[in-house]
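CATEGORY: protein folding

GOAL: derive structure tokens
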Amino acid sequence: MKILIAILLSLSTLFSVELKVGSENAYKPFAYLDEKNNATGYDNEVVKIVASYIKDAKLDFVSVPWNAIFSGLDSAKFDIIANQIVKTKEREEKYIFSKFPYFYGVSTLITLEDKNITDIKELNNPKIGVTVGSNHAYLLENYLKNNPNFKAQIVYYKTSPTLVADLKNKRLDAIVNDPIAIVDYAKAQNIKVKPSAFVFEKVPVYFVFRKDSKKLANLVDEALEKAIKEGKISELSLKYFGVDQSQ
């Protein structure tokens, strides 16, 4: 009997689907660790919903610094990135993106609450902070390239909390980021910020896989499509943000 149980357990492990997910887990409310050190936040919860549509799926969340998230995928520390990743030409050449987005992020100019900015050009030779390697950094770099008469200094940061702290300490005039995340960080630091009316872009967010993970990507796509059609992702967005940013 013991041998039979061992065989059954072995077969169960053999035929289970492991979803090894890499996230920064320091980007509240999208991907972070709760007080019990469990992975949570919108992106991680989307993964959990998707996993519920895959038979015998086993989830494993791996926390890595933002600047190591793609190298972690490359080295197979995990097989999926779920961390507010958007498409770029360079990324599409190297990775597989999920067929469907699960969120639409907004990249906005954000200042302290006492400023009332409607356009980036209202700032005079500003220092603008971004997280290194992020889509927000790419959008600001591209904007400055296309608007050479507007002079600004880009300051790069590894983490968002430091970015917000330097805004408060007047080391920065503004930052470019997702307002949902930055408002959350600011509240935690008792800092009052104000997202401006100046929006760089509204962009879809995807899961990312290595090129050798096509089978896994297809499996996740099927599950994500079902979750979207049944309204599960919309419900989650409303729970976290009060608005449906899943479409």
